[in-house]
Amino acid sequence: MLGEEKNRIEYLFQSVTGINKEKCNRVFEKYTVGEVVENPLLFEGTALQTRKIELLGELQTSIKTKDPFWSRKQICGPKDASDYFESRMTGLDHEEVHMLLLDTRHRVIKAEVMAKGGLASAGMYPRELARTALKYNASAVIIAHNHPSGDSKPSQDDIASTKALHKSFDMIGIELVDHLVVGSNNSTSLKELGVLEREEVYLAPAKTTSRGRH
Amino acid sequence: MNNTDTKEVEKNTNIIAAFTGGDPEQMQKDIDELGAQDFFASIETLAYPEEVVQKIKDLAEFLNITKEPEKK
C-alpha cells in the first residue's frame, strides 16, 4: 500500500471512530487498519474504543456479504426520478440545479448539487454538467431544477436549455435521460413532454434479485 | 424486505448514526427511502449539518462505498 493511501485510511479510521490521533498513530506503527478492524483487541483500547472498532467491522462485513441494506436504487421512470428530486427540492426558497449520475443500468452513482441561485434562477452550464458526469464516469444523467414559485411548468428557456444540454451530452456519449422541473406539489418531466427527441429511455427494473454491490 | 432485513437496516443505520452524529430517525427515514448506497451517494443533497455530512463522507470513503474518482 502506498504511504499516501495508508495515511488516508488511518486518517479516516481516526475521523470515523473519534479515537485520539496519538493512540491511533501508536497502534498503526505495529498493525494495519485492516488488521485492527479484523481483530479489534489488537488496538488495546478501552471497552468503548473496542466496541467502536467492532461496529466498523460489522459494517464492512455487511457490505462484503451483500446485505440488502446496501442495494442501489435504480431509476426506472419519471416517477422514480420525480420521487427522488421532489424529496430534496420541494419547498426550497431559491432555485437549485441537481444532477443524478447513473451507471449503465441507471443505478445511482452520485447526486450532485450543480448550482444554487436566487429567487428566480440558477445557472445550468453544460460545460460544468458534462465535466461532472465525466468525472464520475456516468453513462447517463438526469437533471432537475426547481421553480421556487411552485409552478412546475417549464419555461421556454427550460425547453431551450434542455435541447442544448441534450446535444452537449450526446456529443460525449452520455444519455440525458430526463430533465425535471420541480414545483411545490409535483414535477414535470421534459422527457414526457417530448422535448428530448431521441431514443433515450428509462430502463425497465433489473430482473436479477441480487441486491449487493457491483 | 423481510423482518430480518428490516432489523439489519435498523442496526446498520444506528451504527452509521452513532459514528456520524446524525439524527438516527432522519437517517432511518432517508435510508428507508433511498437505500444505503444512495444515501451515501447523495448525502450532499440531503439536509444534514455540515459536520455530519463530512463524517458520512469519511465513513463512505473508509468503507469504499462511494469512492471519489482519482485525481489526474
Walkthrough of the structure:
The complex is a heterodimer of chains A (214) and B (72). Chain A has 214 residues and is of the alpha+beta class. Helices cover 41% and strands 16% of the residues of chain A. In chain A, strands 2-1-3-4-5 form a five-stranded mixed beta sheet. In chain A, helix 7 links the parallel strand 3 and strand 4. The longest helix of chain A is centred in the N-terminal third of the chain and has 18 residues. The radius of gyration of chain A is 22 Å and the shape is elongated. The C terminus of chain A is likely disordered. By secondary structure, chain B is mainly α. Chain B has one domain. Chain B has four helices and no strands. The N and C termini of chain B lie far apart (41 Å). Chains A and B meet through helix 1, helix 4, helix 5 and strand 2 of A and helix 1, helix 2, helix 3 and helix 4 of B.
| Count of helix runs of chain A | 7
Overall mean pLDDT of chain A stands at 85
Number of strand elements of chain A: 5
Shape of chain A: elongated
Indicate the CATH architecture of the largest domain in chain A.
3-Layer(aba) Sandwich
Strand content of chain B: under 5%
Count of individual helical segments of chain B? 4
Extended strand count of chain B: 0
How many separate structural domains of chain B? Answer: 1
Radius of gyration of chain B: 12 Å
Unreliable stretches covering 5 or more consecutive residues of chain A: 209-214
CATH level 3 topology of the largest domain in chain A: Cytidine Deaminase, domain 2
Termini separation of chain A (Å)?
Answer: 23 Å
Low-confidence stretches of chain B: none
| Overall SS class of chain A | alpha+beta
Summarize the structure.
Chain A has 214 residues and is of the alpha+beta class. Chain A folds into two domains: 3-67; 78-189, 3-Layer(aba) Sandwich (Cytidine Deaminase, domain 2), CATH 3.40.140. Chain A is built from seven helices and five strands, in the order H-H-H-H-H-E-E-H-E-H-E-E.
